[in-house]
Amino acid sequence: MSARCVLHRRSAVGPARRRGSGARAALLLALLLLPAVLAACRSGSESATPAQSPAAKPTQPAASASPTPSPPASPAAAGEPAASPAPTPTPEPAATPAPAGPVPVRVETVATGLEAPWELAIAPDGRLFLTERPGRVRVIADGQLLPEPAVVIQEVAEVGEGGLLGLALHPDFASNGYIYVYYTYRDGSGALWNRVVRYTERDNRLSDPAVILDGIPGASLHDGGRIAFGPDGKLYVTAGDARNPALAQDLGSLAGKVLRLNPDGSVPADNPFPGSPVWSYGHRNPQGLAWAPDGRLYATEHGPTGDLGMAAHDEVNLIEPGRNYGWPEMVGATVVGAPGDYVPPVLESGQQTWAPSGAAFVSSGRFPQWQGDLLFTGLRSRTLWRLDLSEDGRQAVALEPLFAGEFGRLRAVVEAPDGTLYLLTSNRDGRGSPGPDDDRVLRIVPDVP
């Protein structure tokens, strides 16, 4: 009952306390008027709540017999008693919406003093696992780089661009502890090869190595090396041409390919070439893998550096199963050799050299200005590149350089579950100009209060 009704009732019964004939007359009048006043009060209390504004969202009742939200108020169903009117709930303040426009960003330093880090992966408990090319897997826990490596892989051959490269966590890492790494090694004759090995993590230590895939041709250059689990739960592997361009067109070789495996190393039944891990071919040196929110797979790829008398023409490719991406018959979007059914890149660098490496899509709303875009790192370009793609994902709409030259050579970019972004520098890889704190793990965060 509203406060106004209470006041009306008090004014109606107050004259009953007076004495004398005047008081009795007043009392009689009050008693005659009381039913009408009470009726008005009941009518007022049921209709006093103003109509909701279309933009307002009523607060859901605190308790309900069903987990299904109640529909808006409506007449009682036939045969059911009408419910007593409930007090109108006070609308809760609207949740603060995600920023709709650009937000400023800042870059924090997470770890320093690393030696040519190549890949970083984030565990469900927030730990960061990363590789250093000489053969070490390192762990960052609670914001601190642990002094002891999780493992030192003695057989790693750090030669030129080879060494300990990619790292990926099994989709069920929280329960099985599986970590996969890709590295270069020498066989008994001294020849270079690459392989994928699975380890088991316990208490920040890796043990029980099991070879998942072997026989990927290796060299001092063009070893590929990125590994990542896709949304389909399969393990994808990038392999370079190992300085032998013809191998990229040879379906009997693992060089110059994007490969696809089951987590145990077996070949998925739906791969495009039966019994083969080859997913796509005709690649020179792919070093980045990233899945768009709709499941499309993209790879970054290094163009020639004097091969075929050409240079630059780095690429971003939309990877589709069984397709031929042209190398060495096609450079960038230009066919320079035998004609064929080659897939042109979504974007190529022309005469500019990016030396693209790691890649990631921005899927959260922490950085509205980058939402849905592909980010990829540049080594020689020393830039984080932002690529805006067309709706069908097959064309570049815009390319923007970010942090150009600020941190030196950039090897990897990873989106964290909270939407922030991690970067790895690569200034101690033999081609950079390292500063006193290199190499570093950096973190991009919104610079907002």
TrEMBL record:
Residues 1-20, 46-103 are annotated as: Disordered. Pfam families: GSDH. Residues 47-67 have a biased composition (Low complexity). SUPFAM superfamilies: Soluble quinoprotein glucose dehydrogenase (SSF50952). Residues 84-102 have a biased composition (Pro residues). InterPro entries: 6-blade_b-propeller_TolB-like, Glc/Sorbosone_DH, Quinoprot_gluc/sorb_DH_b-prop. Residues 114-431 form the Glucose/Sorbosone dehydrogenase domain. This is PQQ-dependent sugar dehydrogenase. It comes from Thermorudis sp.
